Amino acid sequence: MSDALDVLQSALVTALEAHPVLAEALTGVFDGPPPRSAFPYVSISDGLTTNWSTKTASGREIRIGLTVWDDGESATRLHQLIGHVEDAVAALPRDLAGWRIASCVFLRSFVTRSPAAAWGGIVDYRIRMLSTA
């Protein structure tokens, strides 16, 4: 059985890279902040996985965050990119390799910036998956 988190992260990368606006605007989608990359880009968190099994199927609940990094003068472009990230996640296919997404719930988003750093727009989701294997 494929690990649900690995399958989900792969699906997220594919969805973000295939989104028409994000494909043009982002310099990449990464599993964590890259050592050197031009802005804007998205990093995907490691995710928190818990049991969500039923009597008849193995299941996982995954809390995962996507962070959009940007170095713009204001957060205007960042907010637009966050909206497109939300659209891409909402369009995730429900059937993945060995898993089916039972629910995908937006939890929160927020924007942060330290005076000497880039903008970070964090979007958190709770995604529940059931094994189809």
Automatic annotation (TrEMBL):
InterPro entries in UniProt: Gp17-like, Viral_Tail_Comp_sf
Pfam families per the UniProt record, alphabetical: Tail_completion_gp17
Protein name: DUF3168 domain-containing protein
